[in-house]
Specification:
CATH class of the largest domain: Mainly Alpha
Helix content: 40-55%
Largest sheet: 6 strands, antiparallel, barrel
Distance between the termini: 76 Å
CATH architecture of the largest domain: Orthogonal Bundle
Order of helices and strands: HEEEEEHHEEEEEEEEE
Strand content: 15-25%
CATH superfamily of the largest domain: Helix Hairpins
CATH topology of the largest domain: Helix Hairpins
Number of helices: 3
Radius of gyration: 57 Å
Length: 401
Amino acid sequence: MAKKGKTWSLALLVIVLISVSVLCYWWFFRRNKVSTDDAYVMADTATVSSRIQGNISKIYVENDQWVKKGDRLIELDPSDYKIALDEAEAALSQIKAQLAMSKVTIEMTQAATEAKIREAKASLKAAIQHKEQISKRLDELAQARAAALADFKEAKKDLSRFNKLYKLGATSEQRRDSILTIFKKAKARLEGTDAQIASAKASLNAAQQEISRAKAALDSAVAQKLKVSLERHRRASLNAQAKQIEAKLAAVKLRLSYCTIKAPISGYIAQKKIQVGNHVQPGQPLLAVVPLHHIYIEANFKETQLEHVRIGQPATIEADMYPGHKYHGHVVGIRAGTGAAFSLLPPENATGNWIKVVQRVPVKIYLDQPPPPAYPLRVGLSLHVTIDTSLHEGQSLKPRN
């Protein structure tokens, strides 16, 4: 009986020691740590596609090949785009030639029009001045005629009176002839003045006609300005066409540059499934560039594990591919929602058939150092991640900018 009691005491002691050991291990090594094996290597992979359609003429890379940003990956046949480029350049050259011709036409037409306007204005001014001179001469002749007419009437009256006196013998024949001479001179003066007036009136009509012709010439010259304005509008239209063709030319050059597909980032080639001669469409995935030098970890923790997880806390990562090797990193972000919430078909928890399921939230982790060459990580590898939550100074969300 004593032996049996001693056995029970020994067993109890072993149990206590094991419990204390487990408690100490938990207290010192596991108390402030959360772990998950639902974690994977991730990278912001660049999917390379074509911006234009065409046939592949050259491929410069193969799967698993390292490329730098800007390296040539694929060449598309540029024949169609070179033809379009030649057509656009020819159309632009034609428009530029028309613009140059339009400029010369405007300059010539404007110079000729201004010369005609100056000439027409000078002719009109001269004609108006001539008319004014003739009008002034007519006024002078009218005054001279009035004086000549008065003298003629006076001479005619004297002649009639002296003719009567001569018949009566009251005056001499010499005296009568003297009066007759005066009468003839007055008549000749009046007739001469009338002739001058008639000539001046004819000149006035001619001057008026010259004014009309000068005005018509001026109107015609001014009308030529409309041709200049029309040519300027045509030139503006040509300028607009030139800009349109320049834009088309730039677009064609851009499409031609798209025939050479370059690496958008540095990394390793993956998912290449194309061959020379394949016809590709815009947006069609051709291959991917995986930046293994910029990988990160995405660990999916249960929501019940995230109470004390903060940004900046250290993390230990183990890859199933390399048992025993550990990587070290730190938390850089906690997703704003659960994985289920951002899935293609998020759950509808408002239905009557609801079953509570513990959700998982992705936690983003950066490595403190790049993976060593002997233990490289690849996208999609399974990991075991442990976060040390003993430091509580960090934040659960990134601060707003």
